[in-house]
Amino acid sequence: MSDELKQTATDKHPGWTGAYYNEGSGPDGIFDKLKEECGVFGVYGHSEAAALSYYGLHALQHRGEESAGICASDGGSAFNYHRGMGLVKEVFTNDIMETLKGSITIGHVRYSTAGESKLANAQPLVFKYRGGDLAIATNGNITNAPEIRAELEALGSIFQTTSDTEVIAHLIARSDETDVVQALKNALNRLVGGFVFLIMTNDRMFVAADPHGLRPLVIGKLGDAYVFASETCAFETVGAQYVRDIEPGELLVLDANGLREDRYIEKKRRAICSMEYIYFARPDSDINSVNLHSSRKRMGQQLALESFVDADIVTGVPDSSISAAIGFAEQTGIPYELGLIKNKYTGRTFIQPSQELREKGVKMKLSAVRKVVEGKRVVMIDDSIVRGTTSLRIVNLLREAGATEVHVRISSPPFKNPCFYGIDTPDRKELIASAKTVEEIRQAINADSLYFLTQEGLMEAVGGNEDEKNRGMCFACFDNDYPTVLPEDAKLGCGC
Amino acid sequence: MSDELKQTATDKHPGWTGAYYNEGSGPDGIFDKLKEECGVFGVYGHSEAAALSYYGLHALQHRGEESAGICASDGGSAFNYHRGMGLVKEVFTNDIMETLKGSITIGHVRYSTAGESKLANAQPLVFKYRGGDLAIATNGNITNAPEIRAELEALGSIFQTTSDTEVIAHLIARSDETDVVQALKNALNRLVGGFVFLIMTNDRMFVAADPHGLRPLVIGKLGDAYVFASETCAFETVGAQYVRDIEPGELLVLDANGLREDRYIEKKRRAICSMEYIYFARPDSDINSVNLHSSRKRMGQQLALESFVDADIVTGVPDSSISAAIGFAEQTGIPYELGLIKNKYTGRTFIQPSQELREKGVKMKLSAVRKVVEGKRVVMIDDSIVRGTTSLRIVNLLREAGATEVHVRISSPPFKNPCFYGIDTPDRKELIASAKTVEEIRQAINADSLYFLTQEGLMEAVGGNEDEKNRGMCFACFDNDYPTVLPEDAKLGCGC
Amino acid sequence: MSDELKQTATDKHPGWTGAYYNEGSGPDGIFDKLKEECGVFGVYGHSEAAALSYYGLHALQHRGEESAGICASDGGSAFNYHRGMGLVKEVFTNDIMETLKGSITIGHVRYSTAGESKLANAQPLVFKYRGGDLAIATNGNITNAPEIRAELEALGSIFQTTSDTEVIAHLIARSDETDVVQALKNALNRLVGGFVFLIMTNDRMFVAADPHGLRPLVIGKLGDAYVFASETCAFETVGAQYVRDIEPGELLVLDANGLREDRYIEKKRRAICSMEYIYFARPDSDINSVNLHSSRKRMGQQLALESFVDADIVTGVPDSSISAAIGFAEQTGIPYELGLIKNKYTGRTFIQPSQELREKGVKMKLSAVRKVVEGKRVVMIDDSIVRGTTSLRIVNLLREAGATEVHVRISSPPFKNPCFYGIDTPDRKELIASAKTVEEIRQAINADSLYFLTQEGLMEAVGGNEDEKNRGMCFACFDNDYPTVLPEDAKLGCGC
Amino acid sequence: MSDELKQTATDKHPGWTGAYYNEGSGPDGIFDKLKEECGVFGVYGHSEAAALSYYGLHALQHRGEESAGICASDGGSAFNYHRGMGLVKEVFTNDIMETLKGSITIGHVRYSTAGESKLANAQPLVFKYRGGDLAIATNGNITNAPEIRAELEALGSIFQTTSDTEVIAHLIARSDETDVVQALKNALNRLVGGFVFLIMTNDRMFVAADPHGLRPLVIGKLGDAYVFASETCAFETVGAQYVRDIEPGELLVLDANGLREDRYIEKKRRAICSMEYIYFARPDSDINSVNLHSSRKRMGQQLALESFVDADIVTGVPDSSISAAIGFAEQTGIPYELGLIKNKYTGRTFIQPSQELREKGVKMKLSAVRKVVEGKRVVMIDDSIVRGTTSLRIVNLLREAGATEVHVRISSPPFKNPCFYGIDTPDRKELIASAKTVEEIRQAINADSLYFLTQEGLMEAVGGNEDEKNRGMCFACFDNDYPTVLPEDAKLGCGC
């Protein structure tokens, strides 16, 4: 085997111990937010593919701050790739960028909950098999991965990661099909869940989405090259032209003949994740041609229509709820103010062991602006409530800063059900809206009033048309209507 | 002092070469913004003084991203201190924090223009002299430092930094006074300029401001301890109670007997830097009890009153002009929209040498939101125009994204004169407003219309009362009325 | 899959570029020495197994400076492991050591030629298969690995490394045997080559050697625990008692019942690598109870007997030829002197691009001692000649320092044939002794005389007894008598 | 000066805590050796001066492993310099080397005892004074520095380091002389102690030695350029021609007119440090044209003549006593063997807190070779005994490895008195030879016999000629005859 995978790797934070604030999700995090699990970016046919990937992944950094990776092929017999723990700008130095030669690249940024950070799971995953080299980057979750993995292990497969993504590589490698496209189609047909895949061989690229199109992916052109990204904001950064969103069940094949549109399964009803509209995607991105800032502003306006409250100021929880708060303010005429501020120097920071200083540590991340909220009746807009602990903390910050009333308005329905399609959510029993009524939640978060946007209001705000009702979204976390069959042992969250 | 010691140091970024975008000022930076030069934070009498300093400096990080330092005294015969290049969270690891024992600390964060970063100049500066140990942290500039330095050198003094701050240490050490307070008073009386000083010995602390109070500093209490910070936002973070702003010409002495209020010179007219109100200070900070978000929002409202223009949307240049933009929108009823977005993952990033990719690199930092601005008449609010290059770039971004008209409104008067009191400004000849009329500037930045807030409007917005006219601000950069005598060879910018 | 492999990784040298001297082999290296490929160290049943592994691997560091790894099991459902590029002391920090909990460990140090350094190939390799977790550390080479790999790929196996070692994991995972011991025996019987394996599961350890025992491994005890190491020097460091060397074809099984001695194949004639005696192993190690310093000193004495030359001083090429040089000096009565000195601060160093300074750069590594050799007839002892370039360089160093004659004596026969059993040798055509006569080599290296130890003299020096002739060594690199069948496409060198 | 500034810095080893073995001196070190304090290397008039300095300092690395620095001048108005904690090869990356432009350089490597490592004290020290820039690198100690420092502080000088070297900069800067050469002469005349100085201004270099020539410095030429080094081994590395050793009291002036030989004081009796001959200098260096390997070998021969003992093998404590051991073996005919081995991978290593593993940790550094010493009567040669703890530990290692007798022979007289001229020695009360007889020491180190070389034997071995008796060495540590007046509060050790 004379062809070698030229891998290198970095870990920017080898010395990090537990004594730091993690901003991540979970009860120990300061911001109890849902975490997206991964962003992908691919280029086919550009001489500076790796540099474009760097820019594109940097634009998608909010979808994954834990690790980053780029795999490139110059058409030769081995990939050039690098993966590392940390931000894109930390992982990819000049020296490393110079090694990533080739006109075909796939790249990945990955989120992870604290303690499970693993360089071994960083993507793109790279394999050697009888057909040559194979690299895979994914966003989403395969709910039947445990079943397929058990089946493969029984056949003698060995695994090096805990990532679902490794499953599809085995399915391709073990296929009886000699044509890799057919092998890939067969493999994709085995999978249940919500996912997009960027897959590359030494000279081809494949792009696929699950049958319901649960996770976002957009197709663009840059000169003669094709580019693919989780969100359109990455196209703006690299200067690519948006072409269209991927279709559910689609399989795109890119080779020397250009792009061929194909599919591995009949399209089922579109069910793109509604939390992408509400919270995850960057406000300057569009999904199915709907801009997310505008969409969120309309959610705020709708919220105002549904639940007006007399108050002195409106404030949003930064950064994700600013658009909705501005919409709410515009609709009601109540002034929008900067009542809460988030320190822009994010990332892990030192904390003192003592409880007193731990509490101060929270304020390093988020604080209320006393002069703005003192003596005021405040409408506080947030995008969702997961466990409720964060909301309570923020309401209390506002009260300590002198707010006389705090009215909480949430720009989405109550979050009651866990996600199986790529979002890292806690168990149902930890979801406050699953167990408590709205009034009980109001008490738990110490608010004067609390209102959640209705599902109808949400749909209206996103802007559903008649032909494609609800813009074909998945609302399972609100209404328990999961678009796929769920195995009993279905994996929660993200399988990247 | 044009000759500089070109020291480099083993810092956080040893591999960085020129092939990175610097977000800094100057013609090579993407954001041609003025740079504040330094923030200070001091604690007297708290058992966890270093941890508080860490939190406080992190809150003041926007005032200096280049280096950070903390010096602590446990009352013994030697200081415990650490300085390093990078952000507070990068410079201070757990291991280092453990070494910073003591109940008295002064801390510093420092800005610097690219290429002049020097660990040797990082503060606090620490000296040994006949009286023991001396540490100094400062914000501002001593305009007659070259003169004093020349005088000291003639007497045989040697210098290890190019920092003005070293001058005051020599003046104290060479004083005939046996009482350090009197020696310090004499030294301060030699200085001309705008500055605040935090000075510590093994068991005392001194806090001083220039006779006009050009640079901000606030006094707070945390239990029995005293805390001092460049801005009140740091008090919010550490949980301290704001007491008052420092007075021009004041000298505070802290020792075992507590805090003693003294002064080294008669107070002159207060002339606090107006750019702190317009741009520098964090929006959740207060100066002289005026909140800066509110103040900036009023600037936007005032701007709307002075220069209404019919348009479809209002957008602000992030992050500093958001408050003014919201004020403008509220006043005019034109919707506030997110027309420009800044990537929140700041810091240096890799760039490709090719010109085409360099241009894309700009969009990694700031981009226009096509869906929001396309086909719209846009009011773009910014806080100031320095060279004009950045404004041109942003106007063009908006036009390329489809804006049909771009009306630029600036929430301050034309910036015509360089600063000698701690702000790093270019030479007068590089200041576009110094050479061009408003109409010429409009053409240069490719705007459909351009308007600068009047000085009267600015004063009104800040909220001057009668007793203390104009809140006692320095407007020299607008009106050339410098509050101090300026030596012919006065040092521009920042002397930290 | 709730059990996760808790892997972390470090790369100490992410920024290294080509502009450094590599001391490694190959035409660009300064010291054109053969490189051992790997050392292994295992512990079964000790509460501080990871710390012992650290000490043991540090003692074996000369066998591999490129990467280091330790995998530990605490009997639970997942391994704790870490691998990184660099020396043992660089890869394993305190923080990382604390994570390596468990009483069973295998560890590895790895050599690699420049440019092929790959974290992905760093050992121990860790896998998940139907039987649980599997980790493997190896020293040696599987000559039929390409054939087995092709066969496995045809069956649909995917590979993540280019390491031969991955082959054995697949063979075990695909076995029809339910008993892992039998599966392992079957797998080992498929392999041809020279190798030792340390293999661990969640609660067991296996130790195996090839049928000829080509690579060294020793068995020891430390209290109730068992330890395994490539060389006895590691036992001295951890305080373990040497028990015996492993037997060819042996398979040791360690589990809750202790150590069970088994074998997977009949023992064939022992053929341990003679270069271990001549050059690789540390002088304080023993192989089959023969101390290597003593053995090498006897080689020097034997050399003196075979090829006396009248001279003023004897000097050895440091560090590996010191023992032989002392033996030569003792035998002849010619004084042993320090005519050549190697800088003890090894590792990569900066070099200037200019040719003149490149040459000086060589002297940063090795220099002749002018005062010692000036005007002297020098006998220079070295252990082997590979390409001849190094010998020429050293002879010239001595001449430039004033040596009047340089007589080269080599403590091994001419090195004519490449190794297929774990030593990284160049192609046959690059081996100077393969193409040239001794006289031609003498001219090529600019020596006054040249002599190679005879194969009989070498055997005599090692101290073969009658029962086990020649101590059962492999001399293939000298006499072309390879102990195993060699496939046509047999992999050269090292397969770790 | 007992009060020290406890500065830490962002250095190469930020994560190191106490839980590592330090190989340094002191009761906690494994090797209780004396530590040299500093090596210097200077270049005047070579276009690649910085690269030469890198090579030269790397060759002098054994004189200081703690920090390294190079200052360069290209004749312009500011120096280019860099200092850092760590080895030369760690501190100077390619990027940094590129910044060190100029044809005049001085460089420095520095030793330090654990806990006092300070980047602030790293040399060359660099100052600005009325005459321009000034950089200083030194080796040695100024015994009256505390007195001068107190005097300067009384005059108002401030200090940034605890280094004696800063004193001379102040003396120059405060001089009334307008001619810097005369100012320097006056300053040097104030100093008492043992030292060499390399001093540079923007276009000149000065080289000076104390009146007794206590510390070594050699002068060489490389083409038209002049080079200066603590030892000749650095000349061999850079390819320079040795010219001569510096003379006591000499002052060399280098400027555009070349080298001018001058002196600032009458030469007093030469008294170069005898420990340089015995232990410190590299064996391939020459002092006053005496090669140190040869000199040490003669010490071993002399020791054999003075104290023959019947034994089976001779072994030296590596690395410093190998030459003496070979001399002893040659003289007696007892075979020289490798009875002790030092791990060549030096530097700090992880240790386990438990006492049992701590002891094993020692063996990571040095171990006895069982097969070599078992059942043997061993002569163990060492160069000196400081506290005795190390000797006891090594004797015990030999006994545990089976030595039946251990006869210790020391190649220098008993070390009874502390050094005030640049060597870091413990207080007199910690010096075992100060308090105990030879017989008592023998018992304390558990030896069967013990002998120290006589002072006459040492002189004989070094090779004193008649004209310059004893080669003009300082033997104060043996015979209490200090060549200079010693102030009551004279600083011990090293003042760099």
Give a short synopsis of this structure:
4 copies of one chain form a homotetramer. With 496 residues, the first copy, chain A, is of the alpha+beta class.
Describe the structure.
The structure is a homotetramer of 496-residue chains. By secondary structure, chain A is of the alpha+beta class. Chain A has 2 domains: 6-268, Aminohydrolase, N-terminal nucleophile (Ntn) domain (Glutamine Phosphoribosylpyrophosphate, subunit 1, domain 1, 4-Layer Sandwich), CATH 3.60.20.10; 290-479, Rossmann fold. Helices cover 28% and strands 26% of the residues of chain A. In chain A, the strands form 8 sheets. Chain A has an 8-stranded mixed sheet with strand order 1-6-5-7-4-13-12-14. A 6-stranded antiparallel sheet of chain A has the order 8-9-10-11-15-16. In chain A, strands 20-24-25-27 form a 4-stranded parallel sheet, sandwiched between helices. In chain A, helix 5 crosses helix 6 (180-190). The longest helix of chain A is centred in the middle third of the chain and has 15 residues, at 292-306. Mean pLDDT of chain A is 87; it is low at 1-29 and 113-117. The interface between B and D is large, with 51 and 52 residues.
